[in-house]
Amino acid sequence: MNYLKMDMDRTPVIRFAHSFLTESYGHTNRITDSMEIVYIDKGSWIFEIKGYNVIEAKPGDTVVLPPDTPHSISIREKEGICEHSCVNFTINPGFEILDDTGLRNYLYLIDAEKYGNLKCPPIIIPLHTINVPEYKSLVLKIISVYSIQKPGYLLEATGLLFRLFSLMTRASLEYDAAVHSSVYIPPMSHVYCRRIIEYLNNHFQEKIVIGDIAHEIGLNPHYMCNLFKMTTGDTIVSCLNRVRIEKSKELLVKTTHKISDICTAVGFENEHYFSKIFRKHQGTSPGRFRIISLNNLNRKNIYL
């Protein structure tokens, strides 16, 4: 399963919210700077999100369309009248699509330095959720509030959107816990993994050697790597790259440093490798990420 992790530094701005009845609806390679949560009420729908599995959504399913990500939408032929409800909103720069392994790594990062002083913990939203009735009622309530536009409607609609975020985040974390509840994890492994991740956060700018981490943690290097992989589902090198990419995103948005300088500042020795890893994590190049993020920030400042 894939999840969208959002760092909610600013309140989302709802652009539109409404329901559609249609016999023919679709987009090809559509890309927007906003995000959509789509609830399917009638008909069978096909969502193709570039770089990820094709989603076949049926009545009762909820699909999330990430910002700045090409996607195509179509209805299966001979479905008759189809209906879907949609909430479209802008979010701040700072989203990442995680798979199951990435989600588990996020859970171990919570107590590490990077997440120590957040005003709002990251939101976790599954790209495709199957038949969760609460989602429908909240999406329809948001549409109703947004359509009537009584005084204070934006506050009420945004509050309902955060409620939807909360339910989706809880469902994602509970699902992950249920899937991995039967996996045997050696005692103290969680403590060791958090110490490893803390080390990566504190030394990401440096040339990190597995032996140095093992010496710091007090474990055999081979056993430490196996323990980390078994507990988090990821390798230490992949986790280090994730930490470095997160740090580089901050520098891309908050500074005017050259990309080559940012590459060096976060510990990558090769700019080509940095761009390759960045694109793998974010789906775009560092330069394009900077342009999109700054454009989004400028748009949001207009609404403030």
Explain what the structure shows.
- The chain has helices at 100-109, 133-148, 153-180, 189-203, 210-217, 221-232, 236-254, 259-265, 271-282, 286-303; strands at residues 3-6, 13-22, 27-30, 35-42, 45-49, 54-57, 62-65, 71-75, 82-90, 95-98, 123-126, 128-129.
- It is α+β, with helices and mostly antiparallel strands.
- The chain has two domains: 3-97 and 123-180, Sandwich (Jelly Rolls), CATH 2.60.120.280; 189-303, Orthogonal Bundle (Arc Repressor Mutant, subunit A), CATH 1.10.10.60.
- Strand 5 and strand 6 (54-57) form a beta hairpin.
- Residues 111-118 have low confidence and may be disordered.
Keywords summarizing the entry:
single chain, 304 residues, alpha+beta, Jelly Rolls, Arc Repressor Mutant, subunit A, 4-stranded antiparallel β-sheet, 21% strand, globular
Chart the SSEs and their pairings:
Elements lengths: L2 E4 L6 E10 L4 E4 L4 E8 L2 E5 L4 E4 L4 E4 L5 E5 L6 E9 L4 E4 L1 H10 L13 E4 L1 E2 L3 H16 L4 H28 L8 H15 L6 H8 L3 H12 L3 H19 L4 H7 L5 H12 L3 H18 L1
Helix pairs in contact: 2-3, 4-6, 4-7
Give the fraction of residues assigned to helices. Answer: 40-55%
Q: Order of helices and strands, N to C? A: EEEEEEEEEEHEEHHHHHHHHH
Shape: globular
Work out the radius of gyration. 21 Å
- Work out the number of β strands: 12
Strand order of the largest sheet: 2-9-4-7-12
CATH architecture of the largest domain: Sandwich
Overall pLDDT metric: 84
CATH superfamily of the largest domain: Regulatory protein AraC
Structural class by sheet pairing and helices: alpha+beta
Output the number of helix runs.
10
Structural domain tally: 2
Termini Cα gap: 35 Å
CATH class of the largest domain: Mainly Beta
Which residues form runs of ≥5 with pLDDT under 50? 111-118
The description of the largest β-sheet is: 5 strands, antiparallel
Q: In percent terms, what proportion of residues is strand? A: 15-25%
